[in-house]
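Hi everyone,

Forwarding the result from last night's run.
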Amino acid sequence: MPKGYWIAHVDVTDPEGYKEYVALNAKAFAKYNAKFLVRGGKFTKKHGEARARHVVIEFDSYEKALACYESPEYRAAEIVRNKHSKGDVIVIEGYEG
């Protein structure tokens, strides 16, 4: 079964307020066994538009990745996230090639 991923591109508009989001999302990520593969870090934009922050999170399956995003724990964090950032998030199934 392929793994599932969240891919997020984010501009944090209020770094202090964003800390609350990070604290809240930890509950959902622990519950769904999320593993951060990319969390910020240095990057080079080669083409197109880019936001300031990039995140890739791995889950055991696409279904678990989607369930985490739709969970009550993450929904509470999402409300806070939207107050302190702008961004794009996709949930995607991995490739087993």
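The chain is about 40% helix and 30% strand.

Cheers,
N.
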